[in-house]
Design goal:
The structure is a homodimer. Chain A is globular and about 65 Å long. In chain A, about 30% of the residues are buried. The longest helix of chain A is centred in the C-terminal third of the chain and has 21 residues. In chain A, helix 7 packs across helix 8. Chain A contains 11 helices and no strands. Chain A starts with 19 loop residues before the first helix and ends in a 13-residue tail after the last helix. Chains A and B meet through helix 5, helix 6, helix 8 and helix 11 of A and helix 5, helix 6, helix 8 and helix 11 of B. The first copy, chain A, binds a DNA duplex (30 and 30 nucleotides) through loops.
DNA sequence: TACATAGGTGTACGCCGTATACTTCCGTTA
DNA sequence: TAACGGAAGTATACGGCGTACACCTATGTA
């Protein structure tokens, strides 16, 4: 079923081609590592669909016994997290020297392309609860585009939610949990550790920290309660409805493109 | 493990409480039916999460052997389809006599509420490929709100996609497949049958038919190719970006609400 | 050359969806 | 009122899944 000779050439026939030691040296299979596992998982999911991607099937693809994978990812959840990170890495970095609007536009379209290359990506992203460093870094740099364009932290915050709905799905609770990118330790942390983590987070993701500070400060309610989802949702919804209205009363049609009215 | 006496009172202790025939009559468990199964599935998913919802767990909840469920839904996929239909049924019907904008607004917010009551709903909806009648009927009546508000079929079409992104997730391919709500017959249909289905579809969902006819006619490309996803995506994206721009240059902040500028 | 340790293996367990074949229930009709 | 036929529920079994645990093997360093 699986390779008979561990760590050896999987093309078993080749074993006939020389003395054992030769074969051992020449044909030894490249060792696995986390990146090879993730990369293989991504392209296998592209091929056979995310529902058919199992640890066993992936192992087979890598010509390895299923349990071998667990030396590189601790379980399937972490595999999926890693696959998401791999996709985020495909998104282009922000255009330098462009105005905020075209910078944001280009970046969103790049993200969309990445998500379209892997049609399972959206569903997986939405199923993830832990935010990994790569995702946080992406959001941080995204926020930076607005801030550098002169947006207030306030408007940036809501714009991020509105855009986020387009890219990731329903309103995200990005800023809800301060312990956001720790490996979700089940034990409660002492306050000292917590504040140190916040400190560290602010260094790594300064723009996220800016936004988070604002919304924690803004509503005088319980600290760390996060955003008002309903507000965020209606904000984006009403932008769209107002847009429809303008187009409608301007007699817009799709041959004009969106610049047909103004 | 499962009920010892088939079709009998699951509270096994009660069996001591009388002659067998009495018990048989008095305590017989209500028979299952499709609705009871779906309803139980929805609230069980609410309780334990969609990932923990299995046919076996659901059967246990209904005090029945797992295979009993298969008399009412043909497999788990169909169960999930049914759960989606149950949620769509929770969305309020359109407000009568209101202008298009507030009608659409209220309806979207009602849909959002339904989706929020069942936090697993979005993910399940996105995983579904077959469009069920209840979903089609919902979309049809939704389209009707725009058309009755005087919108062109063209603008309605794009508005639906833009709103759809907010409600269901990434751009949907609603109009792609003419055989859309048939049980996805794997065998190719003779053209006569196909056109009859189209006819039937136009009667059941006249508004969808209106929109579909437009986009099939609009781009002179292959019939039935569906919408230009990229266009739909950029349409909604640019509406948002234009909105951000207006708010930004108007010095908007969130205490103003969206009417702070205009 | 020996050894610690990281990488890979084999086996086993308890879940999962569901095919098949069966028993039991119950409304209809004689 | 008895018998019958279809619908509802059951019993058993199979192959696939994620992964715990114990083990073996390869490899870089002392």
């Amino acid at each position: 079923m699986y390779a008979v000779l561990p760590l050896m050439n999987p093309w078993a026939d080749d074993r006939k081609a020389g003395r054992m030691t030769d074969v051992l040296k020449a044909d030894r299979r490249v060792r696995l590592n986390r990146d090879r596992v993730l990369q293989a998982a991504v392209s296998l999911a592209d091929e056979i669909g995310i529902d058919s991607l199992s640890m066993r099937r992936l192992a087979q693809e890598l010509q390895v016994v299923p349990m071998a994978l667990y030396k590189h990812v601790s379980n399937k959840e972490e595999l999926l997290d890693g696959m998401v990170e791999a996709i985020v890495a495909e998104i282009d970095p922000p255009e330098t020297g462009a105005d905020w609007k075209s910078a944001v536009r280009l970046r969103v379209l790049s993200a969309r392309r990445a998500l379209q290359r892997h049609h399972w990506a959206r569903r997986v992203i939405e199923s993830r609860t832990t935010k990994t460093p790569a995702v946080l870094a992406y959001w941080d740099s995204f926020i930076g585009m607005f801030l550098e364009g002169g947006f207030s932290a306030d408007l940036t915050h809501h714009a991020m939610h509105a855009i986020g709905g387009r890219m990731w799905g329903f309103t995200q609770e990005l800023f809800d949990d301060p312990a956001v990118h720790a490996a979700a330790t089940p034990v409660a942390m002492p306050p000292a550790v917590q504040s140190e983590m916040l400190q560290q987070m602010a260094e790594l993701y300064p723009n996220i920290a800016t936004i988070a500070a604002l919304s924690a400060h803004d509503d005088a309610s319980v600290v760390g309660q996060g955003c008002d989802d309903q507000f965020e949702f209606e904000f984006a919804l009403d932008l769209l409805l107002d847009g429809f209205e303008q187009l409608h009363s301007g007699g817009w049609n799709s041959k004009l493109g969106l610049r047909g009215t103004a």
